């Protein structure tokens, strides 16, 4: 095993951060919505496509504004970030550009970012072109359309951010 990599998962409330992480860690999807309090931390051992085995420390960070003063504490030591937007709410993508990326830039050293367009199983309220444009402006290393419900691209997202984090460390 190479070691532990810390990945933060951030975005607006109800974008599907917890559902995405739970789908990856336990293959479980719940239709119940419960707002995260502060941050949830999950650990999963992963064998990457390169054959390297790592321990992923996943920090699912609450998106509610009341946690704004605590959030930067949870960012500490992050080696990669998944930023989620909710395809059913265009504003969640606007917030990625105006709030979430500047927040990461302020409190994290240069970490690789993957833009996640989540809830791909539902009707989208934002164009793919607009998402790609946001991804370019925030310097996302990749853009993935995911569904925590169906599992589409969930494992792929975590494996890609892990490989990027490893490259960034070395």
List keywords for this structure.
6-stranded mixed β-sheet, Rossmann fold, 170 residues, 36% helix, 6 strands, alpha/beta
Describe this structure in words.
- The protein has a 6-stranded mixed beta sheet, with helices on both faces.
- The longest helix has 18 residues, at 90-107.
- A hairpin with a 5-residue loop joins strand 2 (39-47) and strand 3 (53-61).
- It has 170 residues and is an alpha/beta fold.
- The relative contact order is 0.22.
- It is globular, with a radius of gyration of 15 Å.
- The protein has 5 helices and 6 strands, in the order E-H-E-E-H-E-H-E-H-E-H.
- The chain has one domain: P-loop containing nucleotide triphosphate hydrolases (Rossmann fold, 3-Layer(aba) Sandwich).
Topology:
Elements: E1 4-11, H1 17-26, E2 39-47, E3 53-61, H2 68-75, E4 80-86, H3 90-107, E5 113-118, H4 128-137, E6 142-145, H5 154-169
Parallel strand pairs: 1-3, 1-4, 4-5, 5-6
Antiparallel strand pairs: 2-3
Within CATH, the superfamily carries the name P-loop containing nucleotide triphosphate hydrolases
Query: What fold name goes in the CATH topology slot?
Result: Rossmann fold
The tally of strands reads 6
> In terms of per-residue confidence, which ranges show pLDDT below 50 for 5 or more consecutive residues?
none
Mean pLDDT: 88
* Helix content, binned percent: 25-40%
User: Which structural class is indicated by helix and strand composition?
Assistant: alpha/beta
- What's the CATH class label? Alpha Beta
How many domain regions? 1
SSE run: EHEEHEHEHEH
Total count of helical runs of at least 4 residues: 5
Q: Looking at the structure, what is the overall shape?
A: globular
Q: Main β-sheet, in a few words?
A: 6 strands, mixed
Which architecture would the CATH scheme give at its second level? 3-Layer(aba) Sandwich
Using only C-alpha atoms, the radius of gyration works out to 15 Å
Alpha-carbon distance between the termini?
Answer: 15 Å
Taking strands numbered 1, 2, ... along the chain, how are they ordered across the largest sheet?
2-3-1-4-5-6
- Portion in strands: 25-35%
């Amino acid at each position: 095993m190479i070691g532990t990599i810390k990945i933060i998962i951030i975005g607006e409330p109800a974008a599907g951060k917890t559902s995405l992480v739970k789908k990856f860690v336990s293959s479980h999807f719940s239709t119940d919505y419960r707002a995260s309090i502060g941050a949830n931390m999950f650990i999963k051992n992963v064998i990457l496509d390169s054959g390297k085995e790592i321990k992923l420390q996943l920090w699912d960070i609450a998106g509610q504004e009341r946690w704004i003063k605590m959030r930067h504490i949870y960012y500490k030591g992050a080696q990669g970030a998944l930023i989620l937007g909710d395809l059913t709410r265009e504003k969640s993508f606007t917030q990625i550009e105006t709030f979430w990326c500047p927040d990461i830039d302020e409190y994290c050293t240069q970490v690789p970012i993957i833009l996640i367009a989540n809830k791909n199983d539902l009707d989208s309220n934002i164009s793919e072109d607009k998402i790609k444009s946001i991804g370019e402006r925030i310097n996302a290393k990749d853009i993935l359309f995911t569904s925590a419900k169906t599992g589409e691209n969930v494992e792929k997202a975590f494996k890609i951010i892990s490989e990027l984090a490893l490259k960034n460390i070395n």
